[in-house]
Amino acid sequence: MHPRALNVFKILRRAGFHRPDRGHDGQVIEDYRPGSFLLTSPRRALLATGERQVVTDPDPDELAKRVTKLLVDSPVPVAVGALPFDDQAAPHIVLPDTARWSGPLPAYPRAPVGAAVSVEPVPSRAGYARAVACAVDSLRAGELRKVVLARSLRLTMAAPVDVRTLLANLVSDNAAGFTYAVDLPATTGRRTLVGATPEMLLSRTGTTVVANPLAGSIPRDQDPDKDRANGEALLASVKDHEEHRVVVEAVADALAPFCRSLDVPEKPSLISTTAVWHLSTRITGELLDPGVTSLRLASALHPTPAVCGTPVSAARATITALEPFGRGFYAGAIGWCDADGDGEWVVGIRCGELVEPVTGPSTMTLYSGAGIMPASVPDLEVTETSAKFQTLLRAMGLHLDLT
Ligand SMILES: C=C(O[C@H]1C=CC=C(C(=O)O)[C@@H]1O)C(=O)O
Fold it and tell me: In this predicted model, which residue has the larger pLDDT, 83 or 23?
């Protein structure tokens, strides 16, 4: 090895940084500690620890430029973090002290995470159904083409939540998905967003970009025949294809100015998690300007109509009017960007926000949303969002009757 390359290699090793295509260290779940950043994908996992610097510029261009500049001289050439859904909240991008990659993670032995002493649905099931009916009226009046409405479950925990065990359970349940934990800004105590999303917002590898929007869902069923029938019903649903098309069009439109070529399949395919079936479209493109980073692209795409709606400003206003909570970083974007501009960003859904105050019990607020279209039936959206809660509930070992 050239002596200069050897030096660089030593510096990177000292900082704990290994490129995804080189090091396969494993143990990233075992080494997760509160405050760390973890993002796993079917291909690899990244664990980052410490906060050397935090970048919070609200302007997407400025944010990407600052991060790129900081990464040039950084001993750990990767930035990690989250973009909020809330457009009044600041992005939270961290230059960590260490970053370490592993290959795909194995399934872990199942372990308990912690019991809840109380569960408060916000809004109630009936309240959510009313909000959906209200959104359907707006959609039929033509002000909106699509809006995503969410509900939450606020769990007060009997004991501190073991996030490492929760992550291991999520990884084991969602091998085809993206499991994550992100430390969020908090005035006191600790806030962590933890979840396992099936949806990749964007990846950039060199000049190749890939986006994989999901929209249009139906619950899985324990009976294999009914389960297959559900998948087929989703593939045949005009309402769900329209709901999906809105997202694919928005993602393609947002990527188009950055790309010299874009491949958008005409029809979606069917994918599944353990809880739901989804319509999925994998969009690929070639960048015009190789200087555009994955963080810049993620900011340009986010929020897609998979989590917000179309038109964006009318959808945001409807969400603010109808959802009785602030989303914060739920439905945000979570990911990493390296010094070459490569990176991977996922949609921050199928998650819970863990709040650990300095004194008093921890709370875990789970979020679940559904795309609402003019043809939506409120009770079906209640059932769909109940199914989506199961990703977290199952991993926490909680059996709640949400019917
Ligand atoms: C907003 C969520 O899911 C989105 C992603 C995939 C499918 C969706 C749907 O079919 O409604 C949602 O748009 C959520 O899980 O909280």
Answer: 83
